[in-house]
Design a protein that fits this description.
This protein is mainly beta and about 375 residues long. About 10% of the residues lie in helices and about 60% in strands. It is built from 3 helices and 18 strands. The protein has a 16-stranded antiparallel β-barrel with strand order 1-3-4-5-6-7-8-10-11-12-13-14-15-16-17-18. A hairpin with a 4-residue loop joins strand 17 and strand 18. The N and C termini lie far apart (about 50 Å).
Length: about 375
């Protein structure tokens, strides 16, 4: 009897130890190659880029993620992901891409808190032909390698907010083809205002945000609809909407603005190729004067296909428009296209070649301006 009790106790202790065991995965991307291109503004500013650099196809990164089975279909999980800059020797070449901890319940969904991607960014990743690369020509995920003029100056934050700190996010499992996501951002700080000479400290500095996303999958069709809004209120700042929108409707952290964003897209897999259709809209409004605002909208179509078992190719074309009200805020029409290909050496390593171009024409009561650029890259990318 004593032996039986000891055996049961030993098995129980072993089961408890196994139950508490967690798993951790190290993952990442390293992307290096050659990048070139040209850009020119109507004001006569021209720039040419030629360099061996990094992250033309995918932003290089290093991440750690793990899960722990808590029993009863419940598990804990975490992700810590840092951006890498392979072409830099600076100690600040790391940056926080994602850091969050959450709980998941099988058959229901999950919830997490921390720095996380927005639902729109995750939807663009699933419905964009270009794979969120960093070459010009993609109007939904506008980015560039080696440039700093025109729309390229705002990088990939101009169309929508990519990620946010201070976020609580939930997501459902799939029910009848539908999955849903929602988030809330809260970062508030209220202090008594004290004026010393001409310097004002204290006051209100509140950043909030919320968003919803819904995906529907039926056979080879995927449809997604997403909306998110960010608001910043800063009573200790005198910044106006002309400062917040001096370049573009892009910054949800600018003082005293409301930033509304929406994204709709669909993909269909025809077998020989996959087709994409996307639409994004963003409107930033001054919290001081609601008549001052700027909007950016764009639509884009694309295709992606394996030409051979090892050669993959894609193409996209799109156009869009800025419309702004306030000092020095002209209306602008934008357009862009991109071509690219991968040669897969293995499931984790590929060679790539990408070419993209974009342009814009703008008018105001005092200025007629134009902007054009092209950007190209060849390189190698390894995922692990």
């Amino acid at each position: 009897m004593k032996k039986s009790l000891l055996a049961v106790a030993a098995m129980t202790a072993f089961a408890g130890a196994a139950h508490a065991q967690s798993s951790v995965t190290v993952y990442g991307i390293l992307d290096v190659g050659y990048v070139g291109g040209n850009e020119k503004t109507g004001a006569g500013v021209a720039e040419t880029a030629n360099k061996f650099t990094a992250s033309a196809q995918s932003s290089s990164r290093l991440g750690f993620k793990g899960t722990e089975d808590l029993g009863g279909g419940l598990s804990a999980f975490f992700t810590v992901e840092m951006g890498l800059t392979p072409d830099s020797t600076s100690a600040s070449s790391f940056n926080n891409r994602q850091t969050f901890v959450g709980l998941k319940k099988n058959g229901l969904g999950w919830a997490a808190v921390g720095t996380q991607y927005t639902p729109i960014h995750e939807a663009v990743a699933a419905t964009g032909a270009n794979g969120q690369n960093n070459i010009v020509g993609d109007l939904i995920y506008p980015s560039s390698s080696g440039f700093g003029q025109g729309e390229n100056a705002s990088s990939n934050t101009i169309a929508y907010t990519v990620r946010s700190t201070n976020m609580a996010k939930i997501a459902t499992d799939s029910f009848a083809g539908f999955t849903g996501k929602a988030f809330y951002v809260m970062d508030g700080n209220n202090q008594n205002q004290v004026t010393k000479s001409t310097v004002t400290t204290g006051g209100t500095d509140n950043t909030t945000g919320w968003g919803l996303g819904v995906d529907y999958t039926w056979k080879k069709l995927l449809v997604t609809a997403n909306y998110q809004s960010f608001k910043n209120e800063t009573t200790s700042s005198s910044s106006s909407i002309s400062t917040a929108l001096s370049s573009s409707p892009q910054s949800s952290t600018a003082p005293n603005v409301t930033d509304n964003q929406q994204y709709y897209a669909a993909t269909y897999d025809f077998g020989i190729l996959k087709a994409y259709a996307q639409y994004v809209n963003r409107k930033v409004t001054s919290g001081i004067n609601s008549t001052q605002y700027a909007t950016r909208s764009a639509q884009q179509i694309g295709v992606r296909s394996y030409l051979t078992p090892k050669i993959e190719a894609w193409a996209s074309v799109g156009n869009g428009r800025y419309q702004a009200y306030g000092a020095n805020q002209p209306t602008a029409n934008i357009a862009g296209y991109q071509l690219g290909s991968n040669y897969w050496l293995s499931k984790r390593t590929n060679l790539y070649a990408i070419f993209g171009a974009n342009g814009s024409t703008s008018t105001s009561s005092t200025t007629n301006a134009s902007y054009n650029s092209n950007n190209y890259a060849v390189g190698v990318r390894h995922t692990f």
